[in-house]
């Protein structure tokens, strides 16, 4: 892990969440990721990023400077480096259109085209925990917005999925 902790960064820090196809070996991932983020600089700015592995399979990278001084080129370079790292470690990254659900046996990814069928067959319901990989800031992650019941996400709104009501309520 980098020398900066998530706790030391402000809520406004820019956040990226990337899901791997499979859970990485932290002993292999950590030194590679630390080296990659340690080299992250653009136009004379050294970025102070830190990372964490969430749910064993979702990489969270946070960096405070880019919240106030965004640089598309710097972000593209970092994301390109992360993709190359994932490919080198044979982890692969899930695409941005994939929905990640949490089940007792682990995470499962669904293409958006597959959602309606999984709702119809009961694989997914209003209580299924969905991981929001689109969070923008570290404060969003700290605010418990990462994992939410399907009924409270865009999926629930689009497919009109309600949270089950308690019997006798």
Strands, helices and their partners?
Blueprint: E1 14-19, H1 26-38, E2 41-42, E3 45-46, E4 50-54, E5 58-63, H2 65-68, H3 72-88, E6 99-103, E7 106-110, H4 115-120, E8 129-131, H5 138-142, E9 147-149, H6 154-159
Antiparallel strand pairs: 1-5, 2-3, 4-5, 6-7, 6-8, 8-9
Helix pairs in contact: 1-3
How would you characterize the overall build of this protein?
This protein is an alpha+beta fold. It folds into two domains: 83 residues, Alpha-Beta Plaits, CATH 3.30.70; 61 residues, no CATH class. It is built from six helices and nine strands; from the N terminus they run E-H-E-E-E-E-H-H-E-E-H-E-H-E-H. The strands form three sheets. It has a four-stranded antiparallel β-sheet with strand order 7-6-8-9, with no helix packed on it. The protein has a three-stranded antiparallel β-sheet with strand order 1-5-4. A two-stranded antiparallel sheet has the order 2-3.
Number of domains: 2
**Average pLDDT reading:** 91
* Radius of gyration of CA atoms, rounded to a whole number: 17 Å
Identify low-pLDDT runs: none
Question: What's the short version?
Answer:
With 169 residues, the chain is of the alpha+beta class. The chain has helices spanning 26-38, 65-68, 72-88, 115-120, 138-142, 154-159; strands at residues 14-19, 41-42, 45-46, 50-54, 58-63, 99-103, 106-110, 129-131, 147-149. The protein has 2 domains: 6-88, Alpha-Beta Plaits; 99-159, no CATH class.
């Amino acid at each position: 892990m980098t020398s900066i902790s998530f706790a030391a960064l402000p809520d406004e820090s820019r956040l990226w969440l990337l899901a791997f196809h499979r859970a990485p070996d932290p002993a292999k991932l950590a030194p590679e990721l630390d080296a990659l983020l340690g080299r992250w600089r653009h136009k004379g700015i050294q970025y102070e990023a830190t990372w964490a592995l969430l749910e064993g399979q979702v990489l969270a990278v946070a960096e405070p400077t880019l919240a106030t001084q965004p640089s598309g080129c710097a972000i593209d370079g970092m994301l390109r480096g992360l993709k190359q790292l994932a490919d080198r470690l044979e982890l692969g990254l899930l695409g941005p259109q994939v929905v990640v659900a949490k089940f007792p046996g682990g995470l499962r990814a669904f293409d958006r085209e597959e959602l309606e069928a999984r709702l119809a067959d009961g694989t997914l319901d209003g209580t299924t925990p969905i991981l929001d990989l689109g969070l923008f800031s570290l404060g969003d992650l700290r605010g418990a917005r990462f994992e939410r019941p399907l009924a409270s996400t865009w999926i629930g709104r689009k497919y009109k999925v309600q949270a089950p009501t308690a019997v006798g309520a």
